[in-house]
Amino acid sequence: MVTQIAKCLVSVLIVAMFLTLASSGASFIVTHKKATLTRLKFDVERVSASIDIYNQGSATAYDVSLTDDSWSKVFFSHYHGALVSHAFELESKVQALFYGAPAVITFRIPTKAALQEAYATPILPLDILADRPLRLLAKYRSLISVISIMASFVYLVATPSKSNAAKGGKKKH
Fold first, then answer.
1. Are residues 56 and 124 in the same domain?
2. What local confidence, expressed as pLDDT, does residue 76 receive?
3. Same domain membership, residue 37 and residue 99
4. pTM assigned to the model
5. Whole domain around residue 155: which residue ranges?
6. CA atoms of 105 and 24, how far apart (whole Å)
7. What is the pLDDT of residue 24?
8. Domains in the chain: how many in total?
9. How confident is the model over 112-150, as pLDDT tens digits?
10. DSSP states of 43-58
11. Which of 108, 117, 118, 141 could pair covalently with 29 via S-S, beta carbons 3.0-4.6 A apart?
12. Is the dihedral of CA 159, 163, 168, 170 positive or negative?
């Protein structure tokens, strides 16, 4: 509950700042960074990441560049990326909780000589190769099947059949 209220307050502050800067005739860079996990194999998970950059101001931004060094080679190997929207994929074979830093975008506006900086939204922590219950079930599916079959067999052998119990219960007079 408290985190939802805090998120709402941050959103309101960002919108207020956006409206102030957008109406002042300046460049206003808004950047959103997001990542999703897809399990490829038992020991490999793909991270699909994208960074969207928008100029929400009324002035043009020049010399825009993006720097995102938060994807450590200890955790990831580069898979492939697309330059147009700057979406890319990484593969990880390391089980870890990964915290990615915000990407940094630098740009120049006509009214100022100094480079301006904007930061992407941080991504939520990625629990890479985490043991999730459904994935554990998929991992041990064959073992679970064998144990279930064996347990069923032992149950059938160990419990008396109804026909034998009915015969033993009848007494002849």
1. yes
2. 82
3. yes
4. 0.43
5. 136-169
6. 21
7. 57
8. 2
9. 888 888 888 788 888 888 877 766 666 667 777 778 888
10. TEEEEEEEEEEEE-SS
11. 118
12. positive
| 22's tokens | 């957008």
53, 104 in Cβ contact below 8 A? Answer: no
Predicted pLDDT of residue 88: 67
Sites in the chain below the pLDDT cut of 50 = 8, 12, 19, 21-22, 82-84
> 110 and 52, same structural domain?
yes
Residue with tokens 């219960």: 169
User: Structure tokens of 99?
Assistant: 């915290």
Looking up tokens 């020991």 gives 43
pLDDT for residue 103: 84
Q: Which residues pair with 106 in a beta bridge?
A: 65, 117
DSSP state of 59: S
**What residue has token string 């399990």?**
39
Say if CB 66 and CB 103 are below 8 A apart.
Answer: yes
Inter-residue contact 92 to 45 (CB < 8 Å): yes
Strand order, beta sheet including 62-67: 62-67, 104-108, 116-119
Task: Read off the tokens for 20.
Answer: 């102030």
